[in-house]
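Box S1 | Example of a co-folding query
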Amino acid sequence: MKAENNIIALIIAIRNFLEGLNDIHLKPFLADWPSANYMTRSVLPHCLPVLSWMPAAVKAAGKKTEVIVKVLASLANHIAWGQTYSAQDFGAGFLEKYGWTEFIGLRGPIASNRMACGFLFLGPQIEYPRHSHEAEEVYVPLTGQTLWQRSNQDWAYRAPGLPIYHASRVPHAMRTETVPLLALYLWRGGNLVQKSLIE
Ligand SMILES: [Fe+2]
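Box S1 (continued) | Returned holo structure for fe (ii) ion
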């Protein structure tokens, strides 16, 4: 099926992109990357309100990350977008501007019980409050102009294509301004479907 082929093409592009970053924190994730049996599950498409910002995310993509953002945008309405939080956690407004889609992991189309990989998507003018989780994590922002905070450090802008590492249980937060945030995420170790602990 066309969508499945496109998902596999995107996963191969993501793997090549991550290898090219040559980042020490990415090495264990790449070692755990599923090596065979791509597309082991079919996942029903599910869209979310945050997808209305996909054209803006394409415009905000970095030079190195543009290809991945464009391929994801072309697939966005044919894949499963989910939310871990409810309105009780961060309010109903947050749910209008938040979603993620998993490609590799316990729920995504490519099965792995060792790691998870997908995309986080946040609309503009929103804060993803401080949270933490057991899994260690690498984010690779694909769009710019978002503020990131690790632990108690100062908020800082992170450029598209530069990995951000969070060790297990290290709290972190993100804040978007005028453009949405699209970021690759990788989780490894611990409970791969855990709801984050809100600080
Ligand atoms: Fe996280």
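The longest strand covers residues 98-105. The chain has six helices and eleven strands.
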